[in-house]
């Protein structure tokens, strides 16, 4: 066995008991971010979809539906006018 290999073996045998005693298996020894057996992964998951308790619900849903309807009419009209512009040129 070469000198470098024996020095590496000696260094590893000195470090191994300290690492095993510390209980570290990976890069991080911090606590898991996910919830336990009876906790949700997301803190507000139990009340997340209570739409009847949402503030300004009528305004938000009305604005969303208006945006979807306007986008649904605008995109095809713009696509048609662009296609006609391309054939004209």
Molecular structure report:
The chain is an all-alpha fold and 89 residues long. It is built from two helices and no strands. The N and C termini lie far apart (81 Å). The relative contact order is 0.04. The model has no long low-confidence stretch (mean pLDDT 79).
Mean pLDDT: 79
Strand content: under 5%
Order of helices and strands: HH
Shape: elongated
Largest sheet properties: none
Work out the radius of gyration: 32 Å
Query: Please, how many helices?
Result: 2
The helix-and-strand class reads mainly alpha
Brief synopsis:
The protein is mainly alpha-helical and 89 residues long. Helices cover 58% and strands 0% of the residues.
What keyword list fits this structure?
mainly alpha, 0% strand, 2 helices, 89 residues
Topology record:
Elements: H1 3-22, H2 57-88
